[in-house]
Amino acid sequence: MFIDKCLKGLLYSLLSVVFLCNAYAQSSYLEPPDKFLLRVSEEAVSAMKKELDPAKIDLLKLNEIVKIYMLPHVDFQKMTKLTAGRHWQTATNEQKEELINLFRKKLIKTYSMALLQISPNATMSTYVNKTGIDCSNTIAKSIIKEPNGQSIQIGYRLSIAENKWKIYDVSIEGLWLVENYRSQFNKEINKSGINNLIKKLNDN
Q1: What CATH number is associated with residue 180?
Q2: How far apart are CA 78 and CA 161, in angstroms?
Q3: In whole angstroms, what is the distance from residue 119 CA to residue 153 CA?
Q4: Which of 70, 91, 124, 192 sits CB 3.0–4.6 Å from 196 for a disulfide?
Q5: Is 84 helix (H, G, I), strand (E, B) or coil?
Q6: Any signal peptide, and if so, which residues (predicted)?
Q7: First to last CA, the chain
Q8: 56-60, long-range: CB within 8 Å, 24+ apart, which pairs?
Q9: Cα–Cα distance, 80 to 74 (Å, whole number)
Q10: Parent domain of 46
Q11: H or E element in which residue 139 lies
């Protein structure tokens, strides 16, 4: 499913990004984005090696590792707000929280499954958008190549929130998650309202 693939892209982004930006100089101290993302991936991989038995799949433990080491670096509110579009303004606080939680639950599941599928011998390369770097909306792409020759191109948007780097959108082969999900949200909300959208997302 496209959405699942897009969410997997968030994981690949965290594991593969290396790019430069001078925005961190605007604050007292903000870790450079390349060092930040390298640290995030190293912490997650280290936790997996330490806490997981390679001969046994422990999804509960893997989910906990994802929650601790991956999810704090995703801006769920911005992602959900952009996805809901104009409907975000009319949603109640309870509906907003429910939609954010649904994104979070989906991401936990997708991250965990992606961690099980990535080949340890995969190679990754990353490129910053040639038009320049805007640290409120930095666009870059990563290319992941497997030993069998298969490859996938992942684009992502990353910005600074609360003096930290956060990922808030991702694409697979040029199709952005927020844009694709927004069309689905709008269609369902226009048809039967936000509560029915939430119900459908909970059922999936």
Answers
A1: 3.10.450.710
A2: 10
A3: 16
A4: 192
A5: helix
A6: 1-25
A7: 12
A8: 57/116, 59/112
A9: 11
A10: 2-203
A11: strand 138-145
Total domains in the fold of the chain: 1
Tokens of 135: 């640290």
Q: Which of 50, 48, 49 is nearest to 63 (CA)?
A: 48
Helix (H) or strand (E) holding 196: helix 194-203
Give me the pLDDT at residue 9, please: 60
| pTM beyond 0.85 | no
* Angle at the Cα of 5 from the Cα atoms of 137 and 172, rounded to 5 degrees: 45
Rounded to a whole number of angstroms, the CA Rg of the chain reads: 17
Cα–Cα dist 72/140, whole Å: 20
Pairwise CA distance, residues 5 & 114, whole Å? 9
Residue pair 94/101 in contact (Cβ under 8 Å)? The answer is: no
Alpha helices (runs of H) in 17-155, residue ranges in sequence order: 33-51, 59-69, 76-84, 87-90, 93-117
Q: What is the mean pLDDT of each run of 10 residues along the chain (204 residues)?
A: 57 52 50 65 75 78 87 90 92 94 82 69 66 62 79 78 82 81 89 91 82
pLDDT in tens, 50-106: 887 767 778 888 889 888 988 898 899 999 999 999 999 999 999 999 999 988 887
